[in-house]
Amino acid sequence: MAEETSPGSSIICMFKKKPCRGFFLGLLLIYFYVRHRRFSTSKQTLTWVPDSFFSSLLSGRISTLKDETGAIFIDRDPSLFAPILNFLRTKELHPRSIDVHLLMHEAEFYGITPLVRKLQLCDELDRSSCGTVLFNGYLPPPVYPVKRRNRHSVAGPQFMGGRSGPVERAPVRRSNTMPPNLGNSGILSKAAIEEKLPGSGLGADPGMVRIICGHHNWIALAYAQFVVCYRVKESSGWQLVFTSPRLDWVIDRVALNAKVMGGSLGDNDKMVAVASGTEIILWSICADGNGNEIGVFSLNVPVEALFFVGNQLIATSHTGKVGVWNAVTKHWQNQDVVPINSYDTAGSFLILGCNNGSIYYIDVQKFPLRMKDNDLLVTELYRDPSEDAITALSVYLTPKTSDSGNWIEIAYGTSSGTVRVIVQHPETVGSGPQLFQTFSVHRSPVTKIMLSEKHLISVCADNNHVRTWTVTRFRGMISTQPGSTPLTSFKILSLEDIDGHGGCSAGTEIGPYGERDDQQVFIQRVVPDTDKLYVRLSSNGKRVCEVRSVDGTSITAFMVHECEGSSRIGSRPRRYLFSGHGNGSIQMWDLTTAMEIAALGGPTEEELLELLDQCDLALTRTPDMSPAASLTHTSTPRTSTCRYILLTHEHHYILDRFMFS
Fold first, then answer.
1. Which structural domain range is residue 30 located in?
2. At 148, which helix (H) or strand (E)?
3. Domain count, the chain
4. Residue after which a domain boundary falls, among 491, 520, 550
């Protein structure tokens, strides 16, 4: 009988009628049909492992289904049944020719304890709790903080006079070692916090890392209801320096300002802010690690972007609102703009890409001078020739530019898929930027764009389809038009969980990450519940490395950040990948080393298919990458067919799956 072509599908076997050589226990010969394959062995082979599936089957404790010849039918994968049967015969295992994890699952089902132990040993040899050479450090889950008393003051016995006392610091490790078994005493755990979190719609997991952001040698981690900040020093490594009180709502955005160029601002030198819905809370962090709540502000509409420009905290919403808090004036101001789809910063300028096809700018440095007329001076910089919505925006300041922006290059993408590059030369300051080049290669709205020293990179809503071009510069300025032929084309396939499980899309942005004068990278998490990330070059899609959680926990957030070099002569900044996990921990990976030693391909077709097979597609969908032009949402049909196209270089694979919302 022929072997079925899809061993993983659930197909009821139709048995052929053929003469049976006998199902005679007296002769110790037993026949099996495992799906469409026929196996024969002896009772002695099957029963030498006590209390297994087979001993229960042959003793009658498990009911059996037999065909007309007496062969026992087992509805399992025949390709995995063969090595299990071979182990029962020979007590030998050849791990290089098998998938250890899949075979371990089958061995556990059949109750073959000796095989399970051997496979666990093989897995431990392949995976080290100390991580690979790229594993750089581990930050354990922080202590769960006290609840914030009200919306205008920080609560808790350790806070006095509006300023906090010393925060409790969790032990931090730099070396490649696993943390001790911390248990649940004072550490984030579902057992300790089982309440439903308000504002999440579903029960957000309070113990998982939702968002990671970095600035200079600091990182901020947002959990469901509080934020913590770490800083790294050359001698002492990473230290926990600030923990916010526990809030009443779920954090959706976080922003960190750890260093202001050009001088110190005293108490406001280091700040962290979080947003949920329409509200924002801002704290200052003192040099000794103490924290002080600056205030609570409202944008009056949902906050969709939260970031710092210098010491100004900026919040924007696609509905057309911009909010600014200035550290000098201690003043918060909202202003209406046309609906906003994208933004970028250049020096002290905030550049906005809007739904009406225009690019506007605000000089936030002049904000304190405009208090009397209460105007942020929103000025139109450029209007798209087709007046398509500006859905992605990237500003490149050349080495000859100053903060006033006398030489500026902007790449932007539109809702129609068009990519344009505009340039403002010093001699054209009076007339505004001039159109440099147009690319009409995307068929879907452009969702991300990056103009760097050597490349122009665009991503559209078609399953994160990436196009890249080479940029030629002379003395740091764009000199000739990028070639009309893209450098490469690839996809960063990423499925998102529609249930969310308390997750946050702000914590799983694919990138590109990195400084614009260096090679940038994409981070690919193919399926939501995974312990594996792929790091890929943004210029050509080649795989830099693959990182896997050292403790097997799922990765819930990630971010790439460069930390400043040490004080030693010749020291340079190093790039790290920070991964946040479902158990609340942070793991760090050395991407500088990875980019020096590795240049593999992207995830192979086999790897993508294997990941998708392990993922319950009934709970996943591709993320909605269309620009948010309004707050209206269309209803989702109860049952729909979703086609995922996996494209890597010249190979094409199409998967048809059913999804149930």
1. 25-126
2. none
3. 3
4. 491
Structure tokens at 269: 């030198």
Domain boundary among 95, 126, 157: 126
Could you tell me if residue 534 is inside a domain? no
d(CA 285, CA 288) in angstroms, rounded, equals: 8
Q: Tell me whether residue 567 is in a domain.
A: no
Alpha helices in 70-152 (DSSP H): 78-90, 100-110, 113-126
* Angstrom distance (rounded) from CA 538 to CA 468: 8
Can you give the CATH number for the domain in which 341 is found? 2.130.10.10
Average pLDDT over residues 359-364: 90
pTM for this entry: 0.70
Buried b or exposed e, range 236-255, using 16+ CB within 10 angstroms: eebbbbbbbbbbebbbbbbb
Q: Check residue 176 and give its pLDDT.
A: 33
- Written as six digits, the tokens of 359 are 């690019």
pLDDT confidence tier of residue 653, bands split at 50, 70 and 90: very low
- What are the distances in angstroms from CA 36 to CA 5, 206, 309, 592? 10, 47, 64, 50
Residue 79 resides in a domain = yes
Closest CA to 257 of 225, 288, 231: 231
Report the phi/psi class of residue 387: left, alpha or beta, with left for phi > 0 and alpha for psi in -120 to 50.
Answer: left
Most trustworthy range by pLDDT among 12-16, 127-131, 241-245: 241-245
Counting Cα atoms < 13 Å in the Cβ hemisphere of 401 gives: 22
SS3 call for 39: strand
Q: Domain for residue 143, yes or no? A: no
Element (H, E) at 57: helix 53-58
**The domain that contains 118 carries what CATH number?**
3.30.710.10
- Here the tokens at position 39 are 């196996």
Looking only at the bridges linking them, the beta strands covering 419-424 and 434-439 are antiparallel
Length of the chain: 661
Q: Pull the structure tokens for residue 3.
A: 């072997």
Q: What is residue 320's predicted lDDT score, i.e. its pLDDT?
A: 93
- The answer to whether the beta carbons of residues 34 and 78 sit under 8 Å apart is yes
